[in-house]
Amino acid sequence: MADEHPTVGTNFIRQIVLADQASGKQDGRVTTRFPPEPNGHLHLGHAKAICLDFGIAREFGGTCNLRLDDTNPGKEDPAFVEGIKDSVRWLGFEWNELRHASDYFEVFYRAALKLIEDGKAYVDDLNAEEVRDYRGTLTEPGRDSPYRNRTVEENLDLFKRMRAGEFADGSRTLRAKIDMASGNINLRDPALYRIRKITHQNAGDAWPIYPMYDFAHSLSDALEGITHSFCTLEFEDHRPLYDWCVDNVDLPNHPELWQPLIERGLRTAPSKPRQIEFARGNLSYTVMSKRKLATLVNDRLVDGWDDPRMPTLAGARRRGFTAAAIRTFWERAGVSKQNSVIDYGVLEACVREDLDARAPRRMAVLDPLKLTITNLPATHMETLVFPNHPKDESFGTREVPLSRDLLIEHEDFAEVPPKGFKRLVPGGEVRLRGIGIVKCDEAIKDAAGTVIELRCTLDPDSRHGTPGADRKVKGTIHWVSARHAIEAEVRLYDRLFDVADPDDETDGKTWLDHVNPDSRRSAPAYLEPSLRNAAPEQHFQFERIGYFVADRHDHTREAPVFNRAVNLRDAWSPSVR
RNA sequence: UGGGGCGUAGCCAAGCGGUAAGGCACCGGGUUUUGAUCCCGGCAUUCGCAGGUUCGAAUCCUGCCGCCCCAGCCA
After folding, report:
1. What is the sign, positive or negative, of the torsion defined by CA atoms of A521, A524, A528, A530?
2. What fold does the segment set A363-484 form as a domain?
3. Cα torsion for A250, A255, A260, A261, to the nearest 10°?
4. Are A472 and A405 in contact (CB under 8 A)?
5. pLDDT computed for residue A574 by the predictor
6. DSSP assignment of A14-34, as one string?
7. Which of A205, A376, A419, A500 could form a disulfide with A380 if both were Cys (CB 3.0 to 4.6 A apart)?
8. DSSP letter string over A117-178?
């Protein structure tokens, strides 16, 4: 992937890392991590974080770990882990080490003990409701818990008993002793540990207590030697707590805390990581929240997590979007601290750009109209050779059979053409791609008056490859030999929502009211025979129609299935609409 | 009435005291056997607003205005 799109532009994160490396901070080392919680599928928004985390590491000669943030058993499921790994690899990245926050449970526990011994954490007996009450509000300071000043000995005893499973869920917590009057609510003695007697997906029943995000995440970063820890804007006011945990536990100077890791063979070299926040990536015409995505799947509004209309990475892949396109999309979108919504069109442009360069061309007819070349014998059979790419000879050529009876796109003929129409009209001429110029002598209609066949004559002097082929005609249309065409299912996808911002309910409608009913259409199609050899996930441009991909799961040689990733830019149809 | 952020074109986004990059979109024009691609050109006298400092301000200062996030024993 040191490929296609050179790094362009800059952003504040690159500048920070560049400056840190230049000044020799952390010995000039750059280590990052991508820390998803294994409780769902990765989507395009995660791709931004993945590109940033892995991209910065690669750009600065460092490494990036994949860390599964599994600190909340019950909400998480190891089943998601494979999907996450798969998506990260598909996007083109490889992690240095695969870790789990649960790998560090023993270290977290020892770190908590240390904080207690240092008088910086205490066991609180207040229940959830009472804690909320003591916390104060945004504008009023909180009050100290009556348990805040227990002795170190009592706290140690209580915490060890919490760990031993002596207390009921929710009956106690371990809290950091910071400042109940802080304007930053995250500093009002935040919980470090809660009691949760649930089997953990990796740790089993070893722990009746589980660490909270701020405590686990900051220490995990430090343990992995992370230098730059990127996260989204909402964690900005958690940074003081992140730093508090890192500084007060002081892993580098307390190797006894992480000795268990060394014994297990987990490379550990604690650092003083720096958290840097950036704006999460939002896309227009879609929803990205885990809850809404789950609703779409559960309510059967889509056909699963990898439905080609879903903004999940599995969905984008099946849709035919390429990893390279998604990478350049996020590079192009930039990284800043401004909440924003990027136009879906930018993503489509990236997909077209990538596929224009790498998708071989083919011809396919979606809505067939019979076209007979009357001056060719009924038995005529000829093999034409077509280049696979108009600008890149390395794509080679393919053979395309030509016979007297062809199929063309119904919309490429008009009895009464709209102004500017450049295709076939009664008595008019058009070029049949790679064949020559044909003239429409007669349009045959059925009883209902629908045109069912065009009878045309081919100008032999305009045949492709002859000097006469230079003759100018207004339009060129694609075709397929009726007798040789293979039938296939073509799935035409469009944006899942009919408004740019489905989450906006000021129009009195909910996001569900904006699901686009025409976002998926399935139709039979007639393809040139060379497409019989298409392999799943292989991309093609069906000339004049769009970019397609052989469906990853349903496509077979016997029953071909192609998904439209994106249509071609069309300077014509918008004007007639 | 607390704390933390952010305001540059329709959507993103560079810019870091020396006179507004780039992309998408849009509008022209050229090439073209895909109404595609490609190529050229256009698209902010102005950076949320108002003052101030300066020879010079999107960049510095002050004051307003607007938007986002925070009161889980979620992450």
Report:
1. positive
2. Ribosomal Protein L25; Chain P (2.40.240)
3. 80
4. no
5. 54
6. HHHHHHHHHTTGGGG--EEEE
7. A376
8. HTTSEEEE---HHHHHHHH--SSS-----TTTT--HHHHHHHHHHHHTT-S-TTS-EEEE-S
Cβ partners under 8 Å of residue A185, min gap 6: A135, A136, A138, A237
Q: A525: which 2 tokens?
A: 């199609």
* CA–CA gap between residue A542 and residue A363 (Å, rounded): 5
* Nucleotides of chain B touched by protein CB (<7 A): 1-8, 10-16, 21-27, 33-38, 67-75
Burial environment of residue A132 by CB neighbours within 10 A (0 to 12, 13 to 18, 19 or more): exposed
- A280 flagged as catalytic: yes
DSSP structure class, residue A535: P
Which positions ≥6 away from A541 have C-beta within 8 Å?
Answer: A355, A356, A359, A360, A361, A362, A547, A548, A568
- In this complex, the nucleotide whose C1' atom is nearest to the CA atom of residue A8 is B22
Separation of CA A233 and C1' B18 in angstroms?
A: 34
The two structure tokens encoding residue A365: 């007819």
Mark whether A37 is an active-site residue: yes
- Write down the residue that tokens 């009002």 correspond to: A188
A422 is catalytic: no
Start and end residues for every CATH 2.40.240.10 domain found in chain A:
279-358+486-577, 363-484
Superfamily for domain range A279-358+486-577? Ribosomal Protein L25; Chain P (2.40.240.10)
Predicted-assembly ipTM surpassing the 0.85 threshold: yes
Q: What is the pLDDT of residues A345-399, one digit of tens each?
A: 999 999 999 999 999 999 999 999 999 999 999 999 999 999 999 999 999 999 9
The answer to whether residue A545 scores a pLDDT higher than 70 is yes
Distance A481 CA to B21 C1' (A): 51
Q: Are A290 and A40 in contact (CB under 8 A)?
A: yes
Single-letter amino acid code for the residue at A111: A
Tokens of A100: 């789990």
Separation in Å: B74 C1' and A277 CA? 19
